[in-house]
Amino acid sequence: MNVNSSCFGIFIDINDTLYCSMNDDHKVIKRWLNDSEMISTTAAGTGTRGSASNELNCPTGIFVDLNFDLYVADRDNDRIQLVKFEELNGTTIVGKGSSNNIILLSRPSGIVLDADKYLFIVDQYNHRIIRSRSNDIRCIIGCYGKGSQSHQLSYPVTLSFDSYGNIFIIDSSNYRIQKFDFLLNSCDNSSSVQSVYSSVLTENHPTYSPTGCDLQNYYYEAIQMNVNESGYYSLISNSTIDTFGYMYGGNFYPSGPSINLISKSDNRSGEHQFQMRPFLRSTTANILVVTTDSANVTGTFSIIVSGFNNVTFKRLINPDKCIIGGSCNSQTKGIGITLDDILRYEINQNMTLKNQSLLVKISVALTMIMLIMGLINSILSLLTFQNADLRKVGCGIYLLASSITSLLTISMFTINFSFILLNQMNSSIDLSTRRGGCISIEPLLKLFLYFDTWLNACVAIERAINVYQGISFNKEKSKRLARWIIFILPFCISATTIHEPLHRNIFEYPVEEKDTYGNTEIIEIHRWCVINYSSAVQDYNTAILFIHLIGPFITNLFSALFIIFGTARQRSLAQTSRSYVTHIRKQLREHKQLVISPAILLILAMPRLIISLLSGCVKVSDKPWLYLLPYFISFTPSILVFVVFVVPSELYLKTLKGSLRTWQRRICH
Question: Where does each NHL repeat begin and end (predicted)?
Fold first, then answer.
């Protein structure tokens, strides 16, 4: 055969017809070898580069089957063309433009059809071998990206079979020929499953900065990839634009692109593609972010995933509410909302209280009111329970200690609010002072708060024991036990909350803007107290919250019910003229405050539990009032010791009046 340009591929069919794919002339020619005259005719293509059904673009590998149908690897059209015998118009059976376009090719260079009508394709720029038959198309070799390992290829060119079905591949960039053995039992267990996701980046897509510090004008699409079986999966992009890929485990935060990043890949695989082989987990979210090499670029793209099992895709509209900070310095918010979170965007830096928002001013007023009420509550309670007669049993000692802890709680609440307010208003406060307050104030506040609620629970338990033991109740033993519990309880509470100061720190980031010359300048620096728990510590923290809130409530409630039903049982045995139910009703009327009081305290404390368990992704700044008021309400039990314990008791009120008269005489004299 005489040709006027090079033949990339040749093939001889069963009729001794020689075929030549002319890469530079964009056509395939043929000649019957038994013809005495050396005349060639066109088998496919027009000689002009194109993508129409009768055109080719740099054809490479060719194959002719028993029906004399011609298969062409139409290289630069990224497709496989089937040209029927004695026809010039082809049909795209694999790749770009095919009706079954579940897999994309990139510069296919070789093609072989076996006796079972399986088509084997050398997908050169994807560095793999594809096997296709009707609706069954999958990667069989090189499915996990470019490389030089035994299961990898690098720009393969052609392949051939021997009589045993083994595949031989010219692995050009690895300077070798690879042999892959055919095993009868291999295909059902180890063949790779292909999944494809296709989309278009448009100007309506969100933008961000992949590095975190550049201008945020790179369009991106976040895709959640769900797998049924954990393992390594091969991801390859196919696009007309220059794409980059970033894989995240758990969550993706546009303002913090380095958070949760597990792998990334640029277009160094060639032809505007990225490829990676990340480990995808079936138990967590696997999020692929597809973006571009240059800013403000849009276009179509496809992601081909090969692995053990099918992969399902879900496009994510990702809210950036779980991040605090800026593009160059950011941090994920944990579970739970603190006072710092609520007031973070409400307090204006370097401004006096007069120039602060209405929310801040009202917060200051509420804090002062709660402090005054707390002082009055604690003073009246201390005047009541400092009486020696009331402290002859453990109950009086618990209530005296509760009077002190309620004062400490409301005082620490005021200090915490003042510390947050002053830190945000005055940017000149040094970092060590901020860090010391961040680590210590809130944990101390919780210590006093939990201490106070457990002391109230101890009061309920002692009353129940008193009813149960009756005249055999040992007052001296009760006093000794109370002193020991008051001494040990703070250490027990501290042991359960020691994790909090260890995970607290000051987070700071600069707010920047560009001047008229394009230079970046820092206009202010934000410094916030943040908590960052791991998932295990967060689970532990949640359990501790429930224990310290629900525990005292259950203790109070069951003790109250025991007192009511126990007293009713004793009365019914002594006064047989009345039924047990009648005695229960009487006891409920007489001691209803024992049931009502813990229920009220629980209702008032519930906002604290809810706020502590809210996701960090809640955008507090949208409705700060909705979170600020429950936060204040949750601390009202600390100013209600007098109302809950003293006011309902005639004995305690009588003792208080006596103490007030004593102090009045001391002052007058």
Answer: 146-183
- Note the pTM of the prediction, 2 decimals: 0.54
- Overall size of the chain counted in residues: 669
Q: Of 26, 19, 22, nearest to 51 (Cα)?
A: 26
Give, as one character, the DSSP assignment of residue 117. Answer: S
Q: What is the pLDDT of residues 351-387, one digit of tens each?
A: 788 888 888 888 899 999 999 998 998 888 888 888 8
Q: Cα–Cα distance between 644 and 640 in angstroms, integer?
A: 6
pLDDT, tens digit, 9 for 90 and up, residues 588-598: 676 666 666 66
Q: Are residues 364 and 395 in the same domain?
A: yes
Within its chain, how far is the Cα of 112 from the centroid? 46
| CA–CA dist 475, 308 (Å, integer) | 72
Read off the pLDDT of residues 445-460 as tens digits, 9 standing for 90 and up. 889 988 988 988 888 8
Give the CATH number for residue 405.
1.20.1070.10
- Name the residue range of residue 305's domain: 193-316
Could you tell me if 242 and 385 lie in one domain?
A: no
Residue 1 lies in a domain: no
| Contact indicator for 104, 302 with CB cutoff of 8 Å | yes
- For residues 210 and 84, state if they share a domain: no
Can you tell me the mean pLDDT for 290-301? 88
Q: Can you give the three-state secondary structure of 170-193, one letter per residue?
A: EEHHHCEEEEECCCCCCHHHHCCE
What's the CA gap between 625 and 631, in Å, rounded?
10
Q: Tell me, what amino acid is at 557?
A: L
327 part of a folded domain: no
Co-location of 276 and 162 in the same domain: no
Report residue 181: phi and psi, to 5°. Answer: -75, 140
Say what the pLDDT of residue 154 is.
Answer: 93
Domain boundary among 153, 181, 209: 181
Distance of alpha carbon 365 from alpha carbon 342, whole angstroms: 16
Angle, CA 509 vertex, CA 508 and CA 514 arms, to 5°:
160
| Whether residue 554 sits in one domain with residue 524 | yes
Which segments within 202-338 are labelled E, that is strand? 207-208, 218-219, 221-227, 231-232, 234-239, 243-249, 261-265, 275-276, 279-280, 286-292, 299-307, 311-316, 323-325, 330-332
Q: Does residue 208 share a domain with residue 177? A: no
* Unique residue bearing structure tokens 């980059």: 244
- Determine, yes or no, domain membership for 353: yes
Element (DSSP H or E) covering residue 660: helix 650-668
Residue 466: left if φ>0, alpha if ψ -120 to 50, beta else—which one? alpha
The CATH number assigned to the domain holding 240 equals 2.60.120.380
**Domain stop point among 283, 316, 349:** 316
Are 351 and 474 contained in the same domain?
yes
Of 289, 292, 293, 283, nearest to 317 by C-alpha is 289
Q: Report yes or no on 332 lying in a domain.
A: no
What are the backbone angles phi and psi of residue 361, rounded to the nearest 5°? -65, -45
The DSSP H or E segment spanning 555 is helix 535-574
Are residues 46 and 159 located together in one domain of the fold? yes
Torsion of CA 449, 450, 452, 457, to 10 degrees: 150
Full 3-state SS string of 572-638:
HHHCCCCCHHHHHHHHHHHCHHHHHHHHHHHHHHHHHHHHHHCCCCCCHHHCHHHHHHHHHHCCHHH
